[in-house]
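Field: COMPLEX_INPUT
Field: COMPONENT_COUNT = two
Field: RESIDUE_TOTAL = 582
Field: MODE = joint
Values follow.
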Amino acid sequence: MQQTFYLAIGIFVAVYALLIWDKLNRAVVALLGASALILLGVLNQEAAVHGIDFNTIGLLIGMMVIVFICQDTGMFQYVAIKGAKMSKGDPWKILIALSVVTAGLSALLDNVTTVLLTVPITLLITQELEVNPYPYFLSQILMSNIGGTATLIGDPPNIMIGSATGLTFMDFVFNVGPVIPIIFIATLIPLRFIYGSSFKVSEDKKKRIMEFRESEALTDIPLLKKCLVVLALVIGGFMMQRQLHLEPATIALFGASVLLLISKKDLHHVMEKVEWTSIFFFIGLFIVVHSLVEVGFIRYLADLMLEATGGDMAVTGYAILWGSAIASSIVDNIPFVATMIPLIKNMAPAFGGDAAVLPLWWALSLGACLGGNGTIIGASANVVVSGIAHRNGHEMKFFKYMLIAYPLMLLSIAISTVYMYLRFLG
Amino acid sequence: MIAANIMTTQVLTVSASGTMYDAFKLVHERSVRQIPVLDENKKVAGVITPRSLMKAILPNYISEGLVEDVRFAPELPGFVQNIDQLAFKRVSDLLEKDFAAVSPETSVMEVAALMVNAKKHVESVLVVDDRHTLLGIISPWDVFKRLWDYSEKNRK
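Field: COMPLEX_OUTPUT
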């Protein structure tokens, strides 16, 4: 018992260190850690498989398939261009429009997909306007993480939390959702003061934006109709989750299979586009964290945390909110949340059961999702945008980004603190 | 039959130290498709292809396929300027180093297989010796022209 206890902690620390070091593929690191645990006898294979949250895995795969097929219709580009055109070519209004589109899309799609779809449109638009795209990149990074916080499917931490607790899509919309528009606006206001005056554009260039023909972005109308039907079914299904008694993975995978059937897409091609490295990263990580639960380390951590906060709900809530935010601004929020979930579950009895710790889940969600905004490596979407920016001749430097984004991240957590106080902890 | 039998030995080349203007002159006057680039030692340093030049004048997010289809966008103001500026760029900055080359002893079947199966878009195949000296070039039609001639001769 003693030996497996320390082995499990040792492997967990090694996996975490390698993830922070960030030189090896994260899926390889997680799978190596998971198999080492089985090889060294900390877990047997059955227990390891038991630790995998297949609802998270299924939901991720289902949404990846649906979104990949929908992408082919050009609907997301259509939305981005439509938004930009509604601003009549005014650069600041375009920034707002693209921010709204980015936040809205990332509430429904994963954040990386959202920025991969919208940032090229930003580049096209800013090149037509001949304005510096940097403020747009910055805002889109922030908004993808902010928008993703609002729903169960918007960001992996929420998927994991929802999956582990049975909290539904609408639970997230009602409990985390209301603060998101406030944070959205509170983030845009400082950006306006920092960048607003730098946008000077002639009427000529504004006209170029109006020359975009968004309807031509829609390349496959029959497929678009099928996608919209499936998307409506899936999102409707998520909203009615409680009444339907279905887990989100079932809804997403059912939608994915229906769309595969009616879109007649080549299955092999679609399956290649599923991000299997992310999927196997999750699988490995679940096993590594599960071993900590099995050997009793999480129980031990939970007791420590209860001792430190004196079992006070509000103190614990704020500690989780701020702690997750600071941690997620530096390290990947996925392993962090994967570890926090069993920790909070272990604390639940001390607070009086599952219903009593609900605020802690919202604190974890807000902290982990929003915290990613702090640095350019804080979340996957940040890294992807800075990569695209770099390859197109616009450097997003670590400290220059942090100088603006970190205070904005802290602002969003401060707003969340007030929200938590008014709504749950006060 | 081997590559040496079907290659064109008179190859128009440009020097790596030249400007793209030299390459454009060749395209205009002699209608070549792919231009081998020689370094100062007369070794093959790379090739200039229309595809790589198009990549050079398109923004990266389009050429790397983040948006493949830009039918909805008006032409970028920078696009035509980019073409103008291209003529003054050095050949060495735009050459593609990853090109298809075979030795003169390579079988024609292998050349054909290379053209059909190459992952990247192969325009023509260069024939070089083991010191990267250019010996000739084989365009896709060369394979057929020479093979037709050969089988016609044999029938007679």
